[in-house]
Recover the amino acids of this structure.
């Protein structure tokens, strides 16, 4: 993709310069230095500068030292610090990305995997570096018609933003196909952008790259502007965040749902379709964005409880206390770096907790997670006990006759 | 010191390449162009030298689709000047080397330079003729497959490492100016934040320079282009672990491996 020549006025938003003129920035000034943020951070011990110290360095005018450190490479944008801060400072959403952006501008090198992901996302619109011509390839095996706007531009009720991992990864494609079947069974009038879609851009910003984010948002806005629909539904919690918090800043606002919140609204119509009994003990992993950041705690659970036969058990850390899979904030592309540094992989920490519940299914709702948890299951030797299934896959399975 | 890095765009193989209806060129419909990977290493090596020794770095590239992105990216990474050259045969390395060889000396304030760097090969120039052809035209020394360059204190010579097969490498002293074909920079090409590229775009600093017509250009005519035919497929063995072990041992024995 060409690099967008964005008018900076368009992207007018919070910067380090105007931070303290904004309400969010003024909150930063109220920091108590209590250290709750560092204590709750999954990689807090690995950081020379966790959020608390960043704020104290900021107060002392010593941010250059923070910029020169590797600390924030360990920030997986899990929203735990934000959720627990007694002063309600939006560390994950506002302060840390601003610092990360400055670090990126000053750094000579990035861990190779992250660099490659950022470069390929800019060029191809997806971090795996696949051609955009294959983005909608999953459609043909969905078993139900999936309309692309570019082939049939009639208005639709729902614009379903599929996102990269469910479009390209073979395992993710299965989730996209299941979602399409569930939508179809409910008679939802939906269409997708298909090959015209590119990464929504949230991973770009949280992994340091505001310029990349802006380029992607500008691109998607132009494409979305060509079509008529009533709301955007996305299967990606990160895309959800992008459309909820980022696109409005540049003037693009649509009613928005995550796939699961949409399905939860249709629960009455969905229930009679769930006919096949699934004899599973399921534990649900609250994804950071969906749960802690947007407080969708009950919708996924309501959907799981609606499936006949499913027994839902909770992990020790659930809802607001969930443990991150380690994929946010660029973590998706930092596994090699973390391993070299000797950090524990967060997905392994989490999967051990999931296995401890005795469940045989780990239910997920985020497009980053199937690969992270399936890998982690193999690493910790739990792949005989447990499988990873997206909630829409379980719904789809229960609909099969 | 003054460094010139020659860049060029090549077909991006991530996009599936198709042969056009004429049977001897690439189908343009889905063709996208990307900076040749070796050239991005040449640029990185140039940037490292500029950081070490000071001076200026200029990038020059034949006009091609998406070349502006590559040139602005080079400026954002630290190049001082970017020049784009419309060529009559933009997609033929040999012909464009000939045109550049003849035409570049006339571009104001470009040559002579202390070092002229370019990738030692490109996916559409596997025999790596660009750098030696330019060196020949400009009567300068040439070395290819270069993996590191250090300019000596006198500023008149450089010590250059060149790779050979089997992990051997040779060190050469070259008088400057010289043309070097870079195989790999001393470190991977750096990342440049998109915001810096966008800032470079705002300056609109790319110059377009038309070369003087230099008469007939020697070129290689492409007679036919075809996709590689599928070779034999891998054979999948099936059976229990014991049966599989037997089959593998049979195959290895049959081929004289054990
Ligand atoms: S938790 Fe909030 S108030 Fe406490 S140190 Fe961190 S940022 Fe400051
Ligand atoms: S967002 Fe998560 S990983 Fe990042 S600093 Fe906060 S608690 Fe740590």
């Amino acid at each position: 993709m060409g690099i967008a020549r964005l008018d900076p006025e368009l992207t007018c938003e919070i910067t380090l310069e105007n931070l303290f003129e904004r309400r969010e920035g003024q909150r930063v000034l109220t920091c108590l230095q209590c250290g709750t943020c560092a204590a709750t951070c999954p990689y807090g011990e690995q950081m020379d500068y966790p959020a608390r110290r960043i704020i104290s360095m900021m107060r002392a005018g010593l941010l250059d030292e923070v910029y020169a450190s590797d600390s924030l490479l360990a920030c997986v944008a899990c929203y735990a610090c934000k959720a627990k801060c007694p002063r309600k400072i939006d560390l994950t959403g506002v302060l840390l990305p601003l610092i990360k952006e400055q670090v990126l501008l000053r750094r000579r090198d990035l861990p190779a995997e992250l660099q490659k992901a950022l470069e390929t996302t800019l060029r191809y619109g997806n971090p795996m570096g696949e051609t955009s011509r294959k983005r909608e390839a999953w459609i043909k095996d969905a078993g139900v018609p999936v309309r692309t706007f570019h082939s049939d531009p009639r208005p639709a009720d729902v614009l379903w933003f599929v996102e990269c991992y469910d479009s390209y990864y073979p395992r993710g494609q299965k989730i996209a196909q299941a979602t399409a079947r569930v939508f179809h069974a409910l008679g939802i009038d939906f269409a997708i952008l298909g090959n015209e879609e590119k990464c929504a851009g949230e991973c770009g910003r949280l992994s340091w790259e505001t310029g990349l984010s802006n380029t992607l948002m500008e691109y998607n806005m132009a494409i979305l502007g060509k079509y008529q629909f009533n709301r955007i539904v996305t299967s990606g919690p990160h895309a959800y965040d992008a459309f909820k918090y980022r696109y409005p800043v540049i003037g693009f606002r649509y009613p928005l749902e995550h796939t699961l919140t949409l399905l939860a609204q249709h629960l009455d119509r969905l229930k009679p379709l769930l006919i096949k009994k699934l004899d599973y003990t399921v534990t649900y992993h609250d994804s950071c964005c969906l749960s802690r950041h947007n407080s969708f705690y009950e919708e996924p659970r309501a959907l799981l409880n609606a499936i006949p036969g499913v027994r839902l058990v909770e992990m020790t850390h659930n809802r607001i206390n969930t443990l991150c899979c380690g994929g946010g904030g660029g973590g998706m592309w930092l596994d090699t770096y973390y391993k070299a540094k000797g950090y524990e992989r967060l997905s392994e920490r989490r999967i051990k907790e999931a296995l401890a519940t005795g469940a045989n299914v780990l239910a997920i709702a985020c497009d980053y997670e199937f690969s992270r948890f399936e890998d982690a299951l193999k690493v910790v030797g739990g792949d005989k006990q447990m499988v990873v299934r997206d909630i829409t896959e379980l719904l789809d399975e229960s609909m099969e006759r | 010191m003054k460094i010139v890095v020659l860049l060029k765009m090549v077909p991006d193989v991530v996009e599936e390449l198709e042969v056009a209806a004429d049977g001897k060129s690439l189908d343009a419909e889905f063709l996208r162009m990307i900076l040749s990977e070796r050239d991005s290493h040449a640029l990185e090596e140039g940037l490292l030298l500029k950081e070490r020794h000071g001076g200026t770095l200029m990038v020059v590239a034949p006009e091609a689709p998406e070349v502006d992105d590559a040139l602005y990216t080079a400026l954002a990474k630290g190049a001082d000047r970017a020049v784009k050259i419309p060529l009559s045969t933009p997609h033929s390395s040999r012909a464009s080397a000939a045109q550049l060889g003849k035409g570049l000396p006339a571009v104001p304030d470009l040559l002579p330079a202390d070092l002229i760097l370019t990738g030692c090969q490109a996916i559409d120039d596997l025999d790596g003729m660009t750098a030696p052809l330019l060196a020949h035209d400009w009567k300068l020394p040439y070395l290819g497959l270069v993996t590191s360059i250090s300019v000596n204190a006198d500023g008149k010579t450089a010590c250059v490492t060149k790779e050979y097969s089997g992990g051997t490498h040779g060190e050469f002293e070259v008088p400057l100016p010289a043309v070097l074909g870079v195989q790999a920079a001393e470190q991977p090409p750096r990342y440049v934040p998109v915001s810096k590229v966008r800032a470079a775009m705002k300056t609109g600093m790319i110059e377009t320079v038309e070369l003087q017509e230099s008469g007939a250009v020697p070129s290689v005519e492409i007679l036919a282009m075809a996709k590689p035919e599928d070779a034999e497929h891998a054979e999948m063995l099936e059976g229990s672990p014991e049966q599989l072990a037997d089959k593998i041992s049979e195959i290895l024995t049959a081929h004289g491996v054990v």
User: Anything to note?
Assistant: Chain B has six helices and eleven strands. The longest strand of chain B covers residues 142-151. Residues A 40-43, 51, 75-81, 91-92, 96 surround iron/sulfur cluster (ligand 2) (CB under 6 Å).
